[in-house]
Amino acid sequence: MFADWHDCEKMIRQDEAESVSKEEIPRYARGIVNCILYQRSRGNEISLITEDEALIPFLEKWGIKKMAGVDVDSASSIALEKYRQGLKAYEAQKRDSDRKPSAKPKSLWAPAT
After folding, report:
1. What distances in angstroms separate CA 98 from CA 74, 93, 104, one per listed residue?
2. Which of 47, 59, 78, 89 could cross-link 65 (Cys pair, CB 3.0–4.6 Å)?
3. Cα dihedral angle (17, 23, 29, 32), rounded to 10 degrees?
4. How far, rounded to the nearest angstrom, does the alpha carbon of residue 11 sit from its chain's CA centroid?
């Protein structure tokens, strides 16, 4: 977390005309917003899973991505299916590479000298 709220205010989106004071944000949400902004300053992008109508306008002021529970279910289903397809392809490739060659390798015939 940032030690000072002013660091959070510096990260507000440019199209927002005014900064948001600490007192405007519900107390329970200040730490959440602060942590997300701190992580963003470190190069980590985080989405918040929420359906809290009081919190969403503040997230939008900073451009913090939000997801609903239904979106998480959908995204996780897609990721799981992609993982299964990748695993299936990997196992097929491994199975093909583990097969032993035919009984005797073929060589070119050359006349005796």
Report:
1. 36, 9, 17
2. 47
3. 70
4. 21
Residue 18 belongs to what domain range?
Answer: 5-67
Check residue 26 and give its pLDDT.
85
CA 79 remoteness from chain centre: 11
What is the number of domains present in the chain? Answer: 1
Do the domain assignments include residue 12? Answer: yes
Q: How confident is the model at residue 14 (pLDDT cuts 50, 70, 90)?
A: low
Tell me the one-letter amino acid at 33: V
Summarised one tens digit per residue, pLDDT across range 58-92 is 888 888 888 888 888 888 888 899 999 999 999 98
Q: What is the DSSP letter of 66?
A: E
